[in-house]
Amino acid sequence: MTRYANEILRIINASNSHLTAEQIFLEIKRAEPQIVLATVYNNLKALNKKGLIRILSVDGKTDRYDKIKKHDHLVCKTCGKLADFQFEDLAENLSKQINFDVFGYDLKVFYECTECQNIKNNLK
Ligand SMILES: [Zn+2]
Ligand SMILES: [Zn+2]
User: Fold this and answer.
1) What is the pLDDT of residue 83?
2) What is the distance between the alpha carbons of residues 49 and 46, in angstroms, rounded to a whole number?
3) Whether CATH 3.30.1490.190 fits 70-124
4) What number is the average pLDDT over the span 53-69?
5) pLDDT value, residue 70
């Protein structure tokens, strides 16, 4: 792995905030001022291909990058904010029900975050 890929992986694994490529770029730029955004995108793609990070896509929002460790996501249906949560692994249960091996799943639970609820309540 390249130095950049290692550094990007370190940033993603150290963060809990589901960074966008731009945020990762700004972070890595502090240590590597000569890096360009396209390099960050290429490394993110390569890391994802190797199964070292995952890409989180939410309709209409910029892709986010996240660590590979198994966890699920709460997604605010209004602002798209992501929060982590742990759920028991459903793969085994699901395998039994459908009689096929389950390789994995990507669970998103939609809700409305406190900030968005507050904004709505203030408009009433
Ligand atoms: Zn929200
Ligand atoms: Zn996450």
Assistant:
1) 92
2) 5
3) yes
4) 91
5) 84
